[in-house]
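Comment thread on ticket #2218

A.B. wrote:
> Attaching the input chain for the structure job we discussed in standup.
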Amino acid sequence: MADVAGMRSPYRSTSDTFDLDDLVSKDPFKQFENWFDLARSHPRIEEANAMALATATKDGMPSVRMVLMKGYDHSGFQFFTNHGSRKSSEINENPKCSIMFYWEPLKRSVRIEGKVERMSEEYSTTYFHSRPRTSQLGSTSSQQSTVVESRQCLKDKYEELIEEYKDDDKIIPKPVFWGGYLVKPSSFEFWQGQTNRLHDRLKFRLQKDEEVTDPKLTHVADDGWVIERLLIFFRGGYLVKPSSFEFWQGQTNRLHDRLKFRLQKDEEVTDPKLTHVADDGWVIERLSP
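C.D. wrote:
> Ran it. Output below, let me know if you need it in another format.
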């Protein structure tokens, strides 16, 4: 077993806590805006809008990946992706998700849960054409999450498109398989770490119809939201037994590198051009970005 149990960093001190009196607003979107503005202005946080997006199949198999939040207001949080990707497929069959922002230098995170809906084609097209042309071409050249033979296949397609659209006045059409999604929150959890592990956790949630609450525990906020302080968890050990690994490396042109290890299925017959034998029952595949 890898020896990482002793890896620890100090968080905030007991004189620097986060409680109800420290909220700048009883509106969770405005509270998020306050923390997000601090994160985006912090010199050690490169992408404050990077968020983990967790989805699941209808039968409960989860997956998580990093995406970029591209806008937010009281209607929800926006991100854009390929409609054929794994995340989109899971959203189609189970339109619920969780997103989380973690800003390590601030020792803060925000976890949001809610429903997801697809944004309009008109809105997605407007955003698509606001992106750099290299990013537009990268999205156009890739059928995200499909297995491809090599990186060269992706590069060849990308270079064909560069040649086709070398005239900057020629509009690159938004692919029909690409667009935006909106996460509509039903809860926010604002977390601030404490070195003694008595972390601060304030949760906003939408109050249920006709719900009767204890005013000592549940505090009325704005616009149908309530606030509750959550206990830190009781610690116990869990073991995650992987069935797949995906190694991702970002590229400016959005032709990101994605190599996936997965356990080979019993009696599975694979195409050696796409699926490569690894050690101990694992196989490796390159995924389209």
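A.B. wrote:
> Thanks. Noting for the ticket: The CA atoms of residues 208 and 265 lie 45 Å apart.
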